[in-house]
Write a structure and sequence with these properties.
The chain is of the alpha+beta class and 85 residues long. It has a single domain, classed as Heat Shock Protein 90. Helix content is 36%, strand content 33%. It is built from 2 helices and 4 strands, in the order αββαββ. The chain has a 4-stranded antiparallel sheet with strand order 1-2-4-3, with helices on one face. Helix 1 runs antiparallel to helix 2. The chain is globular.
């Protein structure tokens, strides 16, 4: 359940807190899930930062790491990388 939360919560937040007509890009590679909002966040970066603090402990338990990078003129880019160690 926690692993599902680690992956689905940032996608849900990106869609929920995006501006009307905004888009969300999800990119999945062999070990990394990256979520980026293409348009401005009407609620700031709050949901991503709250999620990141919770996600760090979940990620650690599943050999993963989380990064949240701000984007100029838009919402943050959230990445979950499974290290496999």
């Amino acid at each position: 359940m926690l692993l599902r939360h680690l992956v689905t919560n940032p996608v849900d937040n990106a869609a929920r807190y995006n501006r009307p007509g905004g888009t969300v890009r999800v990119r999945l590679t062999e070990r990394t899930l990256t979520i980026t909002k293409k348009h401005g966040d009407t609620h700031g970066t709050g949901p991503a930062t709250v999620w990141a603090s919770i996600a760090a402990s979940i990620a650690q338990a599943h050999a993963a790491r989380v990064s949240v990078r701000p984007r100029q003129g838009g919402g943050p880019t959230v990445s979950v990388t499974f290290t496999g160690t």
